[in-house]
Amino acid sequence: MQKNNLILGAHMSIAGGLEQAVLRAESIGLTAVQFFSKSNRQWKTKPLKKEDIDLFRQTFASSTLQSATIHASYLINIGSPSQETAERSSIALAQEFERAQQLDVDHLVFHPGSHLKQGEEECLKSIAHQINIILNNAPQGRTKLVLETMAGQGSSVCYNFEQLAYIIDNVEHKERIGICMDTCHIFAAGYDIAQNYDLVIQSFNNTVGLAYLNVVHVNDSKKICGSRVDRHEHIGEGEIGLDAFKKLFLDQRLSAVSKILETPKDSIEDDIKNIATIRNLIKAK
Description:
two-stranded antiparallel sheet; 9 helices; single chain; TIM Barrel; alpha/beta; 40% helix
């Protein structure tokens, strides 16, 4: 595949240093990367050192990668009905956004939040409110704060496009936010991309707008459409199947969107396997 044809990445480990995520992605022919900039299971972390920032930025600049994305901690819930948790989450997300800006990555993806059985509307209002606080206090930069579509498991919100549109409508700096569409999540939430790929993408465009789509998490689903169960599967081995992914990767409207694998992973060989599946789909057009 020729360079620049496809912005395809995978979530990579930062073991040994942040720059190692870039090197690992490049070593298997990817053109994008996603990684955690800190432990995803801890609230606190040490500030980034200047030498680590410089090394990451230099490594990325000299690589063949076109895009870098950080995924925020899973602990963050800026939609929590607990003011203490919402504020703690907002501080943590602001810190992650600062780290993403220091590293000059394209996107910081985060799970919008859960209402914990206290009502979706108030949760959505809290999410928009906390995003406004974060962006109003953060310096300008090219990093976008990107909300991920959810499967609707538990009490998580943003399992439908209308909820994402509501948050966007209530965010002041709309140019600084975006959406990450997870194929497994939207399928589990009831958007049948296996049977109606074009209708789902059109629905997203009509409700949210494709201009806000910055990242796609590319995952098949272990569970059926509408299950609201978030279980990722290898490409073509789940309930979504190969046809929808072929349409996704051949969709010229999404050619500039970063596409990131989050498929099951015991080793980098699993990424290689899924990359081969995707490239074979594209070649078979």
